[in-house]
Amino acid sequence: MRIQPISAASLRAPLTTAAGREPAQPQDGYAGTVAVTQVQLPPLEQTTPQQLQRGYLWQAIPLPGPVDKLLGAVLGFGPVPGWMGLEPAPQAPPQVQPLGFSWTGCSASQFADRAEQLRAALQNGREAGKARIRAGSNANYLVSLDNGVAAVFTPSKGERPPGPARPNLEAGRLAQREEAAYLVDRRLGHLARVPPVVAGGLDGRPGALKLFVPRVPPEDPDHALTRMNPSDYRRLALFDHIIGNLDRHSRNWLVDEGRPIAIDHGLAFPLKNGPQGPMNFAFDKVFRINAEERKLLTDFVAARGEVEQELSKLLAAPAIDAMFERVAAILSSGEVNHQWHQ
Predict the structure, then answer these.
(1) Is residue 163 part of a domain?
(2) Which of 36, 44, 64, 324 has a CA positioned 20 to 30 A from the CA of residue 211?
(3) Looking at residues 165-174, what average pLDDT do you find?
(4) 114 is in which domain, residue-wise?
(5) Is the sign of the CA dihedral 201, 205, 207, 209 positive or negative?
(6) Of 24-28, 265-269, 271-275, where does mean pLDDT reach its minimum?
(7) What is d(CA 243, CA 14) in angstroms, rounded to the nearest whole number?
(8) What is the pTM of this model?
(9) Is residue 117 part of a domain?
């Protein structure tokens, strides 16, 4: 069921109390600035006027005028681009607005409300502007939607297969794993504050549409990790072990006021535990779980039926089973370790 659309203004409205003041510092371990007013963009490929004029195959090889015009008319007709898996030309460069609140600076309940509003905007928005992001192994596009929200779109046609080195990941399911990671994080009370993702694609084109959070990767990941608040480190590490994340390298987490934000979970939820092939695991320390973490995991297991129902359209049953096996192992051993992928 699609959530009803909301106004762009309400999405960017600063968080305030009933009296109109900024909220007090939250008590759930997340604290930072209350309003984000600056936008930091990833490196983008420059969009030329010719690309904006084309109605087909963005970044195509230039052809003689008449041929280009004829080919454009054919390939740009109706559903043809979708049939051929072509990414349409951008209507305009993307326009990115500040979120209007700090990703790591609001309380858990405030964040939950904001996240669901933004998820609804992803579900209901249509492309208004676009530019290709230069970084990443997949084809990624920074897009602005007609409701004022910015997102990163990874079309399924531009997805790079996991390959034989990662045999436990299904090919062609990156978008589904991305959305599953958000839903698991939501079930865990937004433990890692994963940005909302919808696997329904963009304007009928299959793929992952991920909320764009205008923050930056750490300039010195090793330094950032050593200076990180231990509770932040534990949140991301625990989350990565729960979802079986195989790819938490330095570009797959952002920093907001010194606090980490987990992004890019397309290489998670393996079909079984055991050796997983190449892995990037930045948050790799072994640690004992505390009482709060144990309760969180216990409640997660108790809700297994609901979790399975929520994830059944996104993940294969073995991937869900493997996730609960990892959680059971953490509860049994009392620690977060690497046994599940050895």
Answers:
(1) yes
(2) 324
(3) 90
(4) 93-341
(5) negative
(6) 24-28
(7) 32
(8) 0.83
(9) yes
